[in-house]
Amino acid sequence: MVSFAPMSKQEIPSPPPQASVRLDLWLWAARFFKTRSLARQAVETGKVEIGGQRGKASRALRVGDALRIARGEEIFEIAVLGLSDTRGPASVAQSLYAETEASRLAREQARAMRVAERNGYRAPETKPDKRARRLIKALGDIDAL
């Protein structure tokens, strides 16, 4: 009969550090996109650039790569600091990359512009009545009233 001695934690080999990770998997793990399929779709439609070039979802991403990610109206310019293929807490995801100062300032200015554009808008106090709905439908634009 063969007996096995229990292994201590020191004897368990740790997995080797990853040299590369798929681009779509990293974007999902770094929480830029909610699902991996959304990350893949963004890469395929050209919303993600690696070093100024359009990438593929299966491209191997390495530490030090520069990414430009367009998500909605926001554009992130980041440098990859760490690799992960699992989605974890936001604090861990933020440690995987560093955003450039110019990118952060540009995003804040764009957000301030969007807020300033909405300042003049005043929502109607009540729903439009039957006559107003007909006028809106005839004009095709509520801002024309």
TrEMBL record:
CDD domains: S4 (cd00165). Residues 21-83 form the RNA-binding S4 domain. Keywords: DNA-binding, RNA-binding. SUPFAM superfamilies: Alpha-L RNA-binding motif (SSF55174). Coiled coil: none annotated. InterPro entries: HSP15 (IPR025708), S4_RNA-bd (IPR002942), S4_RNA-bd_sf (IPR036986). GO terms for molecular function: DNA binding; ribosomal large subunit binding; single-stranded RNA binding. Pfam families: S4 (PF01479). GO terms for biological process: cellular response to heat. Belongs to the HSP15 family. This is Heat shock protein 15. It comes from Lysobacter antibioticus.
